């Protein structure tokens, strides 16, 4: 089957029509679950499938993603949230830092995602937020920004966004550098990166930072091609040709529509089976 990729206004119209036809939810009956996933280059998707056991070794030893071909694919964190907020039958995974009150977070193994449960290790779906770079092509401004994100000045900014900060107690001292810094990659990191960039610019008046949101894989390619200075990556880095700085730990929140009263707590196995297409209807879940 062909994966459905839904973008922009098409997403809104598509989901509006879907939600209007799925009357089972409104009537309080069990319903078929609309599986929503991210695009193939997404770091969030890579982290999610690895941690839920949705990866298997193929014939050539390469990793294969077992996500059902019937999933609806969206190309951003905001797209996933929008999909779930409109479709009462949808389920998706997003960065905890992007979670808002338009959707409902699901407990995993009885644990709600939060900064506290991530830090304690109780909530199992978590991943690193990193800035990736090519040390052979690292500019003075980029190197200085990497020092900045490890300083105590960023800790409050990071933790106010439901992330676990990995910053040190070392203070940042501006070197009064001049220049431009371009950062691209994971849409999960774009919000926190914009806030960190604003803080850095306030301390370095002659530096201009541009943050471009797409996906982790695109960010990595751009760094390799020396198109940008830094890549925002939301999964563990496996490319040994590049260097990285982990500055925070994020949770992967599982979300459903606020009117969905059937999915409140899932085991990892149930979550995996939903995304494999082996659990299709809410009536198949343990009560």
TrEMBL record:
Q: Which InterPro entries match?
A: PBP_domain, Phosphate_ABC_transporter
Q: What membrane topology does this protein have?
A: Lipid-anchor
Compartment(s) where it occurs, according to its Swiss-Prot or TrEMBL record: Cell membrane
Q: Supply one GO CC term from the record.
A: plasma membrane
Signal sequence, renumbered to the chain:
1-22
Domain PBP, chain residue ranges per copy: 30-153, 175-279
Q: Does the keyword Transport apply?
A: yes
Fetch the Gene3D superfamilies from UniProt: Periplasmic binding protein-like II
Keywords from UniProt, A to Z, are: Lipoprotein, Palmitate, Phosphate transport, Signal, Transport
Family (UniProt)? Belongs to the PstS family.
Protein's recorded name: Phosphate ABC transporter substrate-binding protein
């Amino acid at each position: 089957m062909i994966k459905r990729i839904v973008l922009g206004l098409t997403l809104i119209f598509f989901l509006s029509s879907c939600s209007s036809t799925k009357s089972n939810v409104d009537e309080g009956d069990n319903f078929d679950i609309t599986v929503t996933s991210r695009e193939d280059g997404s770091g969030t998707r890579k982290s999610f499938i690895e941690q839920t056991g949705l990866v298997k070794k193929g014939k050539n030893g390469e990793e294969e993603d077992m996500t059902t071909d019937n999933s609806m694919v969206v190309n951003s964190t905001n797209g996933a949230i929008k999909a779930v907020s409109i479709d009462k039958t949808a389920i998706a995974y997003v960065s905890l830092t992007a979670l808002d009150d338009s959707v409902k977070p699901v407990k995993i193994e009885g644990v709600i995602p939060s900064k506290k449960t991530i830090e304690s290790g109780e909530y199992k779906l978590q991943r690193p937020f990193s800035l990736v770079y090519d040390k052979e092509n690292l500019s003075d401004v980029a190197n200085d920004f990497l020092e900045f994100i490890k300083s105590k000045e960023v800790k409050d900014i990071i933790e106010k966004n439901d992330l676990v900060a990995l910053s040190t107690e070392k203070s940042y001292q501006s070197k009064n550098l001049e220049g431009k810094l371009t950062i691209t990659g994971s849409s999960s990191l774009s919000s926190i990166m914009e806030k960190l960039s604003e803080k850095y610019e306030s301390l370095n008046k002659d530096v201009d930072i541009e943050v471009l949101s797409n996906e982790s894989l695109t960010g990595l390619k751009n760094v390799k091609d020396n198109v940008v200075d830094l890549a925002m990556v939301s999964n563990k880095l496996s490319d040994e040709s590049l260097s990285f700085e982990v500055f925070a730990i994020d949770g992967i929140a599982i979300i459903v529509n606020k009117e969905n009263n059937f999915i409140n707590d899932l085991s990892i196995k149930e979550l995996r089976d939903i995304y494999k297409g082996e659990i299709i209807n809410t009536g198949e879940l343990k009560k």
